[in-house]
Design a protein that fits this description.
It is a single chain. By secondary structure, this protein is α+β, with helices and mostly antiparallel strands. It has one domain: Orthogonal Bundle (Cytochrome p450), CATH 1.10.630. Helix content is 50%, strand content 9%. It contains 17 helices and ten strands. α4 (82-89) packs across α11 (186-212), α10 (169-177) packs across α11 and α13 packs across α15 (280-290). The radius of gyration is 21 Å and the shape is globular. It starts with 13 loop residues before the first helix and ends with a strand.
């Protein structure tokens, strides 16, 4: 095990947040597992280990299905954070089998490839409208004018959230997702709790309305599965809807702006893409690899495991570094080079194993729709000013992306 006292890895340092990839290279050179005292975690920087551990059932997103907090050597969350943890802990991302299996199966019934494909005309039309507005204005903030409204509208449409109610979804989501950063502040926790209470209350009312008048939406589908006796509680429905909304747009928003920031800094690659739109699918995969919107994914160690001769004990927390794994030269030749023609691209930006992103096909569709619309309607798109990174590490994105259409 390598010591971590003098590492360049510092998730609170603005210089690191601006470009974490050199620090990841240093981590990979140090070894396969690095103890990191500031967050009480074990860092896993190599692709092969991250990929294997995502599938290792000796690890879990939770430990509560097997141990109490005391048995696991962990302190329970403060009582004032209960609304957030009730909401978060009943979503399938933070559950393990058998509950995870049951909920994912039910969600999959209402989240079929046919459902996603049926949305394609709506997604493409909306992407075209949003880009047209950007072009008419000669540019603007790509984040607020295209990247953000598209996936928010799409997941809200899937869930059956009325258009008049959608403006509040993004602020709720942003406040809740603040808790996924490392060592969130008391102020961040308070915002997350407030958003959890308000969002849960809203969804409880929406579920009640859909019980009376079911529709073709995902909420109605989850209710139908519940009412058929197939074991979805109301809290699970609420937590699932929040998870789908948060995961269904946070990653897509950040993948869009991270991707376009990278393209606009690599004019040769962007020129090749503008010349050949058939590169769009491969470009999306490469941009997701090159600057992934989810940099770190955590797991609890449920049984002692050994990594490269180091025993990581039960009760420890492992931090799998997706951003580092996606730049591992053992898997990706010249990993720090953006290459939209990269053919072998086993990035792990959508995770792996039982927690593989259920919305990955929808995210790819949305990213392709907005990218294609921008290539067609804004072939002269250029950076208007240097973008500023959000002061976040786990969920990597920009404060905005100001562009101009020359």
């Amino acid at each position: 095990m390598a010591p971590a006292s003098d590492l360049a890895f510092d998730p609170w340092d603005p210089a690191f947040l601006a470009d974490p990839y050199p620090a990841y290279a240093e981590l990979r050179a140090r070894g396969r597992v690095i103890r990191y005292e500031p967050t009480d975690q074990w860092l896993i920087p190599h692709h092969a280990d991250v990929s294997a551990l995502l599938r290792d059932r000796r690890l879990g997103r939770t430990y509560r299905h097997r141990f109490s907090h005391q048995e696991f050597g962990r302190t329970p969350p403060p009582p004032e954070q209960e609304p957030f943890h009730t909401l978060n802990d009943h979503g399938m991302l933070d559950l393990e089998p058998p509950d995870h299996t049951r909920i994912r199966r039910l969600v999959s019934k209402a989240f079929t490839p046919r459902t996603v494909e049926r949305l394609k005309p709506y997604v493409c039309a909306l992407a075209g409208e949003l880009v047209s507005g950007l072009v008419r204005e000669g540019g603007g903030d790509l984040l607020t004018q295209v990247a953000e409204p598209l996936p928010v509208a799409v997941i809200a449409e899937m869930l059956g959230v009325p258009e008049a109610d959608r403006a509040q979804l993004r602020p709720w989501s942003a406040d809740i997702c603040g808790m996924y950063e490392l060592t969130p502040s008391p102020e961040t926790a308070a915002r997350a709790v407030r958003a959890s209470v308000e969002f849960s209350g809203y969804l409880r009312e929406l579920i009640a309305a859909r019980r009376k008048e079911p529709g073709e939406d995902l909420i109605s589908g989850l209710i139908a599965a519940h009412d058929e006796g197939d074991r979805l509680t109301e809290q699970e429905m609420i937590s699932t809807a929040v998870l789908l909304l948060n995961a269904g747009h946070e990653a897509t928003v950040n993948a869009t702006v991270n991707g376009w920031a990278a393209l606009l800094r690599h004019p040769g690659q962007l020129a090749a893409l503008r010349a050949d739109h058939s590169l769009v699918p491969a470009a999306i995969e490469e941009l997701m690899r090159y600057d992934t919107p989810l940099q770190l994914f955590e797991r609890w160690v449920l049984e002692d495991i050994e990594i490269d001769g180091t025993t990581v004990p039960r009760g420890a927390e492992i931090a799998m570094l997706f951003g580092s794994a996606n730049h591992d030269p053992a898997v990706f030749p010249e990993p720090d080079r953006l290459d939209l023609t990269r053919e072998d691209n086993p990035h792990i930006s959508f995770s792996a194993g039982i927690h593989y992103c259920i919305g990955a096909p929808l995210a790819r569709m949305e990213l392709a729709a907005s990218m294609t619309a921008l290539l067609r309607q804004a072939p002269t798109l250029a950076l208007a000013q240097e973008p500023v990174r959000k002061p976040n590490f786990v969920i990597r994105g920009l404060e905005g992306l100001r562009v101009e259409v020359r």
